Description:
homodimer; Aldehyde Oxidoreductase, domain 3; Glycosyl_Trfase_fam3_N_dom_sf (chains A, B); glycosyltransferase (chains A, B)
Amino acid sequence: MNARISPPPTLRAVRMRLHAQHQPIAVMRTDCHVCHSEGLSPRSQVLVIAGERQVQALLYQIDSDLLSPGQVALSEAAWHALDIQEGAQVQVRHAPILRSLAGIRRRIHGQRLSAQDLDAIVRDVVAGRYTDVALSAFLTATAALPLDTEETVHLTRAMIDVGERLSWDAPVVVDKHCVGGLPGNRTTPLVVAIAAANGLVMPKTSSRAITSPAGTADTMETLAPVNLDLDTMRRVVETEGGCLAWGGTMALSPADDLFVRVERELDIDTEGQLIASVLSKKIAAGATHAVIDIPVGPTAKVRSHDAAHLLAQRLSETAAHFGLALRCLFTDGTQPVGRGIGPALEAMDVLAVLKHDPGAPQDLLDRAVLVAGAVLELGGAAAAGDGTRLALDTIASGGAWDKFQRICNAQGGLREPPRAAFIEPILAPHSGRVVHIDNRKLSRLAKLAGAPESPAAGVHLQVRLGDEIAKDQPMLFLHAQTRGELAYALEFSREAESLILVGS
Amino acid sequence: MNARISPPPTLRAVRMRLHAQHQPIAVMRTDCHVCHSEGLSPRSQVLVIAGERQVQALLYQIDSDLLSPGQVALSEAAWHALDIQEGAQVQVRHAPILRSLAGIRRRIHGQRLSAQDLDAIVRDVVAGRYTDVALSAFLTATAALPLDTEETVHLTRAMIDVGERLSWDAPVVVDKHCVGGLPGNRTTPLVVAIAAANGLVMPKTSSRAITSPAGTADTMETLAPVNLDLDTMRRVVETEGGCLAWGGTMALSPADDLFVRVERELDIDTEGQLIASVLSKKIAAGATHAVIDIPVGPTAKVRSHDAAHLLAQRLSETAAHFGLALRCLFTDGTQPVGRGIGPALEAMDVLAVLKHDPGAPQDLLDRAVLVAGAVLELGGAAAAGDGTRLALDTIASGGAWDKFQRICNAQGGLREPPRAAFIEPILAPHSGRVVHIDNRKLSRLAKLAGAPESPAAGVHLQVRLGDEIAKDQPMLFLHAQTRGELAYALEFSREAESLILVGS
Lengths: 504, 504
């Protein structure tokens, strides 16, 4: 039998200049000889091979003279993965059988995943072999029956192993993370500035938003370049002791971004995934000591102190497997921190605190010095119990602001956050006291207004819990870059009950 | 606030002639004014509106002169849903918020779904509002924590309600279904011919393959047209008493096909989904009495008699909610039925039985008369205990073959099943007795060879359990339409252990 006796036929690659995020796409003529000989049909997964490189792509078929039967048109993600020139010869065939899916099927039916299973899954995900259906099945199955401690350790290790791993020429490398769920809680730029100003090494890599209207990387990007390559990052850390980079360019735990896109669409974010996501990034970034801020509140991600303690315990257990020293802080998660929700609006809050403006949000300052204090103590830069005072002094003296400017300039230059084209108030329905603020709905509102894709978009809060407010006084301002998004957010603000509840 | 004071801008529709199965796709220029004003980014879900019609589509963006900034290119699914002409004016905006996803999130976290939840989910699925991520999350969540009886009833009702529902001018309308998992078990055409020949009304609608290499509709399509519209189906049933149609054209339980595509990719097929799928189709098709064939065997879909009894009980409980009389048969599921696996190869087995050929597969005949006997008894055409004898007589007398030809001709004409371009034997590795046949791996093999997309493709078995076989004697023949698929199947047959196990 010699089904492969002749070399498989090649096609000429055409760059379609089609944007589809991470998704590689191939388009072939329905009457293409390769479609016939391979038995390919629309929406099947194909392997596109160019020399030593290959990429798995989603196939569509076309009946049009835009393409000739001997061509295959490729999306940008496919084009870049193959690194080819216009007209290059490529081969297209059935994608290989996705063996790691068997583990997910067993997991759906209640069996636990081994280290080998998770390693195979994460490798296939990073290699682009997982369709949205398979990715969603993995994340849903591990949300429905949550990952246990062993699986979480295995997943963390698999996520570290599949990416780069940084090492720093320092015995202590500090890091911090907030488990999120609290809009506007943008302490990271402040903590890095304070820690670095006190001589600690804090090479911070942050992610973009998962289900929130802004991640630290989104916020920082409105203040300075964050897409640093590793050489730039090393230079910034060597000279300034700290940096504020987006982790994505570093390929640290690269599976995380792929999981995050699907979690964002489903709006689920499970404990095991969260732990693996947080710890894999910290460990891959070379941290030896990390402070985890866990805001607790009825509409925060962690809703009770019991849940917070459980999460802290699981985080510490998992971290211990990797020799990472961890300290968890439980903070107030009953309302947003600062006034801005959205990349640029949060950046403005950060700047006000750094400059020690009299009008700076006190709550953001308080939290930043609390977290920074823990980092200073854990990293050995402050005595036990003295961290918060030292952190506050570093803000008050201007040392943190000076260090922040140096870091931003080393990253490519401090810049002004953008301002939105459309600003619209949402008014109090009647006079009274603010008795409830729904963090989840505020996040939703900021996202509908365009955050984080539009950095200037979001929500600018005018009230806090307990404030007295008059009828028709603005409770918040919506900021949007487009009319469509403004209308979309306004529609939601009208429909959503108790976004901000004013007692009578 | 007048974000919508001016009418939203329109775009000119371009037919891309792009095939992507059910998936509607829209392509717009990255610099298109609507992308800017609506804040649209690649891979977002958009609503495309043309007059009274609208369709939700997956958006890609392009930087190329193939499209101008005032145009939107649409895939075939989008084009047909909108029913427009080239250059028609359409609007594109953000897809509405998918509210039913909240139910799926609750379900992932262990809460049960109400009738309202399931109704909303199924309506959104059928309206094309579910992405692959959302569809996969629903099916995975209801596999990880299986649907309970109440949820199964609600899902069944939701799946019926969202589609057409047939009614027949007859007090008794019989139907049958095999829960699958047994390659080649193609009794349906035989049962319909026998039932109709004995005066019963059996307007059979069948589905295409889910995870198997052929569904009854795939097999029947090699013998006669099965894409019947409702008028044709009624005419066939009025004159002949029975028909063998593909259910898809009838929009009976239209959510099923959308679920099936994702279940096929994941290769999961859960009990609750199975019950809702089977019963919603039977009830929507107007059946009053149905026989369910449940093959039991270690590599069949149902692996033990306990599991079969549980399934039968849940099927009967659910059917009772809808006034459907059910009889479940437990049959031998230890090995494939007949010799062919794949649409055309199974059709040839069916023809041999109908013609009462001396070489016809005895096991297929035995099963067909067993199931047909139960149908005859349940439908009142045979006394209790006399069904099987009457069914066998109907085959032996030529009455079934006569009726089958009449039905096929009424559907548009009896035709010859196609034959494959490539046929390749797989030989016995040594002499001995056949001690094990793996149904699942055989199905996989037939699918890799191209079944059911290539109707002629599949597996033609040459041995049964217990047969003595000599070294290098063919155990089966692979049939494929393309070299690529043949190579793919051969590769699997070499790698797969114990596809057919020959004892020594």
